[in-house]
Amino acid sequence: MRVVHIKNPQQREACLARLCAEAYGQEAGLRPLATFAGTLGVLVKQEAARVLALVDNHSRPVALALLVLDELGSSMTVMLLAELDQDPQQAGVARPAERLVAELALKAPLRVDARDAEQEARFREAGITRWLDGKAGVRIGLGPKHPATSLEDLPRALTFDEAAVIQSFKRDRQQFDDYKARFIRGLETFPATL
Questions:
Q1: How far is it, in rounded angstroms, from Cα 100 to Cα 160?
Q2: How far is it, in rounded angstroms, from Cα 127 to Cα 132?
Q3: pLDDT value of residue 27
Q4: Which of 17, 51, 142, 173 has CA atoms 20 to 30 A from the CA of 41?
């Protein structure tokens, strides 16, 4: 088992499309597509986003994560995380999303945001032991290599305006159609191995 940083543009697009689809589910409306477009159009262009996968011993992806740099470039935030269905015939990887976070926390200054106690418990099992109280009840977990010691010295993660992306889709049908085609192509060409 190992972590793979997906640098190949076609594989990165395919993995990002699958990650957005898995993270948001079938009933999410335009959110998966807006996240896909905003990540590629803003964060990837700024070299501020990384798509990573945990692969099993046969190089099959079992979990995906989108990491985004903070505005100082000193740490990374897990923006999206998803487990992928594993073949029940094969010896599966137990709790692959937690394993991916645990591996990343050992190597990078990692931040996670937990929206509820269940998410926090999952991240605690993955080795995130330092916690801060954020806004609106969000708990912010910091990996062992993260330099922040308080909320005041925690830099903001880079992001994009999801609502603006959706508005741009409404104004520019060609842009919407292009990203939709790329998203669908990504889902169809998701790599079996990395």
A1: 25
A2: 15
A3: 78
A4: 142
- CA-CA distance, 142 to 146, in Å (whole number)? 6
> Which residues are registered as beta bridge partners of 110?
76
Residue carrying structure tokens 């992806």:
61
pLDDT, position 91: 55
CA distance 106 to 89: 31
Tell me, what's the pLDDT at 190?
97
How many residues are there in the chain?
A: 194
Q: Collect the ranges in the chain with pLDDT lower than 50.
A: none
Query: How distant, in Å, are the alpha carbons of 82, 172, 186 from that of 164?
Result: 25, 12, 23
β 139-142/110-114 pair status: antiparallel
Reported as half-sphere exposure (CB side, CA atoms, 13 A), residue 159 has a value of: 11
Q: In this structure, what are the phi and psi dihedrals at residue 81, rounded to the nearest 5 degrees?
A: -150, 135
Other CB atoms within a 10 A radius of the CB of residue 81 amount to 25
- C-alpha distances (whole Å) from 21 to each of 14, 30, 148, 191 are 11, 11, 32, 15
The tokens for 3 are 């972590």
CA 166 – CA 175 distance, rounded (Å): 11
Alpha helices in 5-84 (DSSP H): 9-24, 31-38
Instruction: Note the maximum CA span of the chain.
Output: 49
